[in-house]
Amino acid sequence: MLRCAVAKTKGKSHKGKVAAKPTGKLAKAKPTAAKKLKATKPSLPLPPAPPAPPPERDELSAPRDVARLTRYGERFGDKKIDVRWLPLQLPVASGSLAIFDPGAPKSWRVLDRPSGSGAFRAMLSIARSEDNKEKLAAVVIHVGRPPIARWTVAHFRGQKKPKSADQLPRIPVTSGWIALLDAGKDSPGTLAVPAGIGIQPVEVPLVDGRRALALPCGNGEYAAYWAVDAQDKPICVVLDFDVFTQKEWKARPLTS
C-alpha cells in the first residue's frame, strides 16, 4: 500500500507541475547552431541618401515672361507665335555654349551656366502677322527636360551679374546674323554666311570640327534667358531677338 501511494504521488508531481528552470551548467549551455546563426546575422545596409540638389546659381530673374516666345499660338497684339523645329541639331561636347556675331569676332560671349553635353534640338519662334509676314522672334536650344520651375537671365562668363533689368547682358550684332556653337575652343573668327534668305538658319561647319548654327536676326543687341527646373538644372536657352515692343509685351493678348 505504501509503495502504490508513492508511485501515485510521483506521477502526479511529474504531470501536474511545471518543469523547474534549469540551473548551473545546464543554464549556461550554448545555443544551437540555428539560434547562433540567427543572432549573428548582419543587418542590411541602409540605402544611400539622395544627392542634395546643386545650389542655385546667382542669376537675375527674367524681367519678362519669356515662355510666351515658346508657345505656339501666343499673341502679341496682331502678331502670332509660330514654332518650327529644325531638322539639324547643335552638337556641344565641352558642356558650354557660345554666342557671337559671325561678322564680328570680338562679340564672342560664353554663357556662364553650363549647358551640358550632347546634340541639342533647336526650335525657331516666328512672329507671324495677319498678312502672313514672318520675322524671327527667338531661337530655343533644348538642353534638358521639363517641367520648368523658373526663368533667369543668361549671364556671360567673366562678366559681373547685372543689378537690374536695365543692365541685361546682351550680344551686339552688326552683320545681321548671330551664331551659336560649342564654346570648347576660342572664337573661330569671321564666318562666311549667305545673304538674303529670309529667316532660314544655316549650319556652318568649322575647320576644327565644330558646327555653328547661324540665324538671320537683323542688327541689334540681344539678351538670352535660361529655363531651369526645380533642381536648378537647365532645360533650354532662349535667345530673344526683340521683335516685340514693350507695349506689345504688356498688352493683353488678343483672342484667336
Topology:
Elements: H1 2-16, H2 33-39, E1 75-76, E2 79-92, E3 97-101, E4 104-110, E5 118-128, E6 134-142, E7 150-153, E8 171-173, E9 177-182, E10 202-205, E11 211-216, E12 220-228, E13 234-240, H3 246-250
Antiparallel strand pairs: 1-2, 2-5, 3-4, 3-9, 5-6, 6-13, 7-12, 8-12, 9-11, 10-11, 12-13
Radius of gyration: 36 Å
Question: What letter string, H or E per element, gives the SSE order?
Answer: HHEEEEEEEEEEEEEH
Number of helices in the DSSP assignment? 3
Total beta strands: 13
End-to-end distance: 117 Å
- Proportion in helices: 10-25%
* Shape by Cα distribution: globular
The structure class reads mainly beta
Integer average pLDDT: 84
Q: Report the portion of residues in β strands.
A: 25-35%
Q: For the report, how would you describe the main beta sheet? A: 8 strands, antiparallel
Low-confidence spans: 1-18
Give a description of the structure.
It is a single chain. The model is unreliable at 1-18 (pLDDT under 50). The N and C termini lie far apart (117 Å). 28% of the residues are buried. A hairpin with a 5-residue loop joins strand 5 and strand 6 (134-142). The radius of gyration is 36 Å and the shape is globular. It contains 3 helices and 13 strands; from the N terminus they run H-H-E-E-E-E-E-E-E-E-E-E-E-E-E-H. Strands 1, 2, 5, 6, 7, 8, 12 and 13 form an 8-stranded antiparallel β-sheet that branches. The protein has helices spanning 2-16, 33-39, 246-250, and strands at residues 75-76, 79-92, 97-101, 104-110, 118-128, 134-142, 150-153, 171-173, 177-182, 202-205, 211-216, 220-228, 234-240. With 256 residues, the chain is mainly beta.
